[in-house]
Each structure stands twice: as structure tokens, then as C-alpha cells.
């Protein structure tokens, strides 16, 4: 009757398996309950954001300010929509290349599942450090460098001296970093100032947005000398006058007009 073992052993194994399946079922129910609660919170957040948007737009007096505010609200709405889709539909983040993830297998009893976990971001330290020193050097014309993601590594993607070219480096679906040198001061006291910029395009996914604080800290391990740090999320913000204004506020007033454009 029991060809493969003693009845007591088989009964014990069956009971252990039964208890494990029940435990897994309870855990699954808990997870579903938590996701339902999170979904309701996201729904409520979206409703609040919509009400906030309508009330604030009603208070705007300038048409220019209204357009800018609408743009900012649309960016926020897209972020919430991304989060909502992840929570409610189990949407995967497909913005990371396949070499950015590793498969981890987890088995429970006779069931298994796999999940993708982002690997730690790496740096091409040699090219990043060389670009950083190039921008800081008075002996070269280089006034900016841009650092982007290639797979799971951050590399120097471009250098230059023309600010128009600098603005072209940042796409709406990209994350990136910029380092700039600007000539500030008056005719009698010109001085160099440096700025560090973090770019998160409006079409970047929620997951990759969340990773930026960690990735930025890695980059700043090399790029450590700057007067101003900005995080930008729209092309309109990549403006040399705004950059200079931020640097002026960080370092005091200018008394002349002798500034060199990029």
C-alpha cells in the first residue's frame, strides 16, 4: 500500500506540505490586501492631485505662468499614472536593457517564481574623471561634459564648449548628468564657476526616477567640486541665463557686465 516509505513518514510529509501551502496562501492574501490598500491610496492621490491642479490653475493670473504650471502638473500626473499602472496591473519597467538585470529564482514547496532585480550601477571612472578634469582645466576650451547610462554603466557621452550643443544632449526619455564651467564676475574680477546638473526627462519611468538619487551619489564621488547643483526635468529649464542666475545667487552679486557666454 505504501511502496515508497512508512505510512507515518508519508503522513508527516503530507501534513508539512499542507501546512506550507496554507502558509503561502495566507501570505498571498496578505499581499493582495496590501496591494488593494495601496491601489486605493493611489486613486485618492490622483483625485487630490486633480483637485489641486484645478484650484491652482484658477489662481494663476498670467497666461505664461498658467502654461508653465499646466506643464508641471502634466509631468506629475504622468508619474502618478505610471505608479498606478505598476500597482494595479503589475506593469513591468521595460526601460532597462536586458543586461541591467539578473534573474533570481525563488522556490517554495513545489512552486517557483522569478523576479528581476536591478544590478548596481557602475562607472567608467577613467572617462568620467578625464572629462571632469578637462572641464576644470584652463588649458582646454572644454566647458561642459555630459554623462549618460550605457547599460548598467555611466559613461562620458559628450564634451564641448557650445551651449547649444549641450542642450541637445538631453532627451525626454533619458536620465543624465551634466558638468559645466561658466565665466562669471565683472570686468575687473572674472572668475570661473562650476555647476552640476541632474537630468530626469519627463518620460522616464517611476522606477528609474527612484534610482537617480543613488546613481547621482555614485557620480558625485568623482564630480565633487561645484558651486550649484540643479535637478532639471524639462527642456525649458536648460537655460544658460537661469544657470548664471543660480550661480550669482550662490556667490553674491556681480557689479559689472563682463561675462563670457558658453
TrEMBL record:
CDD domains: ADF_coactosin_like (cd11282)
UniProt superkingdom: Eukaryota
GO biological process: regulation of actin filament polymerization
Positions of the ADF-H domain: 120-248
Keywords: Actin-binding, Cytoplasm, Cytoskeleton
GO molecular function, one term: actin filament binding
A single Gene Ontology CC term: cortical actin cytoskeleton
Keyword check for Transmembrane helix: no
PROSITE patterns per record: ADF_H (PS51263)
Compartments reported by the entry: Cytoplasm, Cytoskeleton
Main location: cytoplasm
A Pfam family recorded for this sequence: Cofilin_ADF
Family under the similarity heading: Belongs to the actin-binding proteins ADF family. Coactosin subfamily.
Complex and partners: Interacts with 5-lipoxygenase (ALOX5/5LO) in a calcium-independent manner. Binds to F-actin with a stoichiometry of 1:2.
Function: Binds to F-actin in a calcium-independent manner. Has no direct effect on actin depolymerization. Acts as a chaperone for ALOX5 (5LO), influencing both its stability and activity in leukotrienes synthesis.
Protein name (database record): Coactosin-like protein
